[in-house]
């Protein structure tokens, strides 16, 4: 794995770059934009179109392999694998839809689309795992922001499809073949592990609020401009369409304003604050790569940032931990091995034994599955209702998807912080009260 960056600015740079990767990770949401061409150009029947949509769903959600290797591979390599998948898969689809080659077998197109959309799993895993480790105290907020931008990706691609690509399915597939991998290659340098940002301050809260507000503004902007473009027939390469696209790019770059502010208006960090920045216990590699100073050892009974913030607030305070600390303080040699608690890292086999894992799996299967079913048939739903242009329908779907994802991150972080504060208060009273 590459070197670990230190300081307060690199995590925010990585978060700003991750926004662009998450937009690229939403490439599977573009299926309604070119599904009609699979019927008209390649002559697919409705049943064939449904089955190839299943290939898109399987590829997008087959994240077992990226999840298993995310602790072994650096983020840049995962992004490279995702970019190659995108290039190969969508490249085959473009060759067929553009009639550059003779019509390819159906089974080959099925596997090509599966490989293409599997890039989403590699992109999302790389940026989510890296940024949640870089911000261990705000994992819910970070996940909500990044997944929210992922939900907005369909609206972003729709804007490009309408203003630059002139509603051409072949050009869209070419853009996915070349544009998405190039974007991820450009972002590779910035998506990397950093010394975890463990400062809980008003400035950090303002930064997250700013990023969330920027994503909300972008969501409304995309929804409004798509509707206006549909009403006033904008998107023929005129000045208005270029302005639409330029403003969208500017709003996508908004999260980078945070590290820019830190560059031009640096805030002095005291030595004590620098010592308090420790690697998150959720990243084994960060532990191995960041040296720990031996001459400034923290007191034995002072809880570490990662233990206090990521473990204790999710489980009731364990008195055996207190007894172990007291025994160590008296000079006893104590070696304790316990299973990970909720909120800590689990191995794959450990997760399979937890009810929480299967509950999340069931909720994801039911909740996301219903949305994916609507998305796959969105073009056919629009045509059945007399709407030939599905861009406005996809933008509405994307905006609602974004609201649910961003809101889920905000709500979950609120409850996590509330329980953490309550658990810490109970732990302090239990330990020192008597």
Automatic annotation (TrEMBL):
TM region(s), chain numbering: 12-29, 49-69, 76-95, 107-129, 141-161, 173-195, 207-229, 241-258, 357-379, 391-416
Q: What is its main location?
A: membrane
Q: Which UniProt keywords are present, listed alphabetically? A: Membrane, Transmembrane, Transmembrane helix
Residue ranges annotated for the Nodulin-like domain, each copy included: 11-260
Keyword hit for Ligase: no
Boundaries of every NFD4 C-terminal domain copy: 352-423
Has the keyword Transmembrane helix been applied to this entry? yes
A GO CC annotation recorded here is: membrane
Q: How does it sit in the membrane?
A: Multi-pass membrane protein
**Alphabetized InterPro entries for the sequence:** MFS_trans_sf, NFD4_C, Nodulin-like
Pfam family, any one: NFD4_C
Localisation: Membrane
Q: What is this protein called?
A: Nodulin-like domain-containing protein
């Amino acid at each position: 794995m590459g070197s670990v960056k230190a300081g307060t600015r690199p995590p925010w740079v990585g978060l700003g770059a991750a926004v662009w990767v998450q937009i690229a990770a939403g490439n599977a949401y573009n299926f309604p934009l070119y599904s009609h061409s699979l019927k008209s150009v390649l002559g697919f029947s409705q049943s064939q179109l449904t089955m190839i949509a299943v290939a898109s769903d399987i590829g997008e959600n087959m994240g077992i392999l990226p999840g298993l290797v995310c602790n072994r591979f650096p983020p840049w390599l995962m992004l490279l694998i995702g970019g190659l998948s995108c290039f190969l898969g969508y490249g085959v689809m473009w060759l067929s839809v553009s009639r550059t080659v003779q019509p390819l077998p159906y089974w080959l197109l099925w596997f090509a689309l599966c490989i293409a959309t599997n890039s989403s799993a590699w992109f999302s895993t790389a940026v989510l795992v890296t940024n949640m480790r870089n911000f261990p105290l705000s994992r819910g907020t970070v996940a909500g922001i990044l997944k929210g931008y992922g939900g907005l990706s369909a609206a972003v691609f729709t804007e490009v499809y309408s203003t630059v690509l002139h509603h051409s399915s072949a050009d869209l597939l070419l853009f996915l073949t070349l544009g998405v991998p190039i974007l991820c290659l450009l972002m590779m340098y910035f998506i990397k592990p950093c010394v975890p940002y463990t400062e809980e301050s008003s400035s950090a809260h303002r930064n997250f609020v700013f990023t969330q507000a920027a994503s909300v503004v972008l969501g409304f902007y995309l929804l409004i401009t798509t509707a206006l473009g549909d009403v006033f027939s904008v998107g023929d390469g005129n000045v208005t369409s270029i302005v639409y696209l330029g403003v969208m790019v500017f709003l996508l770059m908004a999260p980078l304003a945070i590290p820019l502010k830190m560059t031009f208006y640096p805030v002095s960090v005291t030595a004590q604050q620098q010592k308090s920045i420790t690697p998150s216990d959720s990243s084994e590699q960060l532990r191995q790569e960041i040296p720990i100073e031996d001459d400034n050892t923290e007191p034995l009974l002072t809880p570490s940032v990662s233990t206090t913030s990521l473990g204790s607030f999710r489980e009731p305070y364990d008195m055996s931990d207190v007894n172990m600390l007291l025994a160590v303080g008296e000079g006893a040699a104590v070696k304790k091995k316990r299973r990970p608690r909720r909120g800590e890292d689990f191995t794959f086999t450990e997760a399979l034994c937890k009810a929480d894992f299967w509950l999340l799996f069931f909720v994801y299967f039911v909740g996301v599955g219903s949305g994916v079913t609507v998305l796959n048939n969105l073009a056919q739903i629009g045509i059945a209702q007399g709407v030939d242009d599905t861009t406005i329908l996809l933008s509405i779907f994307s905006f609602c998807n974004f609201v649910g994802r961003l809101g889920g991150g905000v709500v979950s972080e609120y409850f996590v912080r509330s329980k953490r504060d309550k658990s810490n208060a109970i732990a302090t009273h239990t330990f020192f009260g008597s």
